[in-house]
Write a structure and sequence with these properties.
By secondary structure, the protein is mainly β. The protein contains two helices and eleven strands; from the N terminus they run H-E-H-E-E-E-E-E-E-E-E-E-E. It has an eight-stranded antiparallel β-barrel with strand order 1-3-4-6-7-9-10-11. The longest helix is centred in the first third of the chain and has 15 residues, at about 1-15. The protein is elongated, with a radius of gyration of 21 Å. The two termini are about 25 Å apart.
Length: about 230
């Protein structure tokens, strides 16, 4: 996936050299903290939902994209991108069964990661002298998922075990909404550098479960460059 990202970046820079003034191309990174919002879709006892919320902890995640932007007028633009997106969460300490399925004396903290290809469609509007708002919809295509077991006690204490897994409950396609407040801090004829406070939330549940839904919610600071 990293090689694909570099190829796309080279393509963006090449196309930009011959583009008209209405078009621009960019790259941005979105380091963030992600937590999972859990909704009760049935008559599950509320204490079960609250217990799940208390058990799952926020996780540091990272997303990035390359995009093409079209200037609609002097204040507004529309962009379409493609890139990498990750969401996930950590758990509190829990007991882990041994490889033969029997209960063991090992306890671990788990980190779940859900890795996606993202295709964001975003609208940007300039408010005043480099200050702008930006928002839109993001299409997320699930590629692979992983779980990391960090053993904190027992015979495996100190060991880390990372595994990829397939979960039939994880949806292949999800959608999220994104809203940002940004500022351009450097601008000349060749490059535009900006940062933006961003919040992104799934608007469809990550899982297919009929009893409850999981909606990743991410907040962080986007850093980007437009050419």
């Amino acid at each position: 996936m990293k090689n694909l990202f570099l190829i796309l970046l080279c393509s963006v820079l090449t196309i930009n050299a011959t583009s008209q003034n209405k078009w621009s191309f960019g790259i941005e990174a979105f380091p963030n903290m992600t937590s999972f919002l859990i909704s009760n879709k049935s008559n599950l006892p509320e204490e079960n939902i609250e217990r799940a919320k208390d058990f799952e902890l926020p996780k540091f995640c990272f997303s990035g994209q390359l995009y093409a932007s079209f200037n609609l007028n002097s204040k507004a633009s529309l962009s379409l991108g493609v890139g990498y997106n990750a969401v996930g969460y950590k758990t509190k300490k829990m007991g882990v069964t041994s490889t033969n399925g029997n209960p063991g004396n090992n306890f671990a903290e788990l980190t779940y990661s859900y890795n996606n290809i993202q295709i964001p469609l975003l609208f940007q509007y300039s408010i005043y002298k480099g200050l702008y708002v930006r928002g839109g919809i993001n299409t997320l295509l699930n590629v692979y998922n992983s779980a990391e077991f960090q053993y904190v006690s027992g015979e495996k204490s100190g060991q880390i075990d990372k595994r990829e897994f397939e979960d039939p409950e994880i949806k292949d396609v999800c959608f999220s909404g994104q809203l940002s407040l940004g500022v351009t801090f450097f601008n000349n004829e060749k490059i535009n550098l900006y940062s933006q406070i961003t919040a992104e939330s799934y608007v469809t549940s990550l899982i297919k479960n009929e009893f409850y839904g999981k909606f990743p919610f991410s907040t962080g600071l986007v850093i980007g460059a437009k050419f």
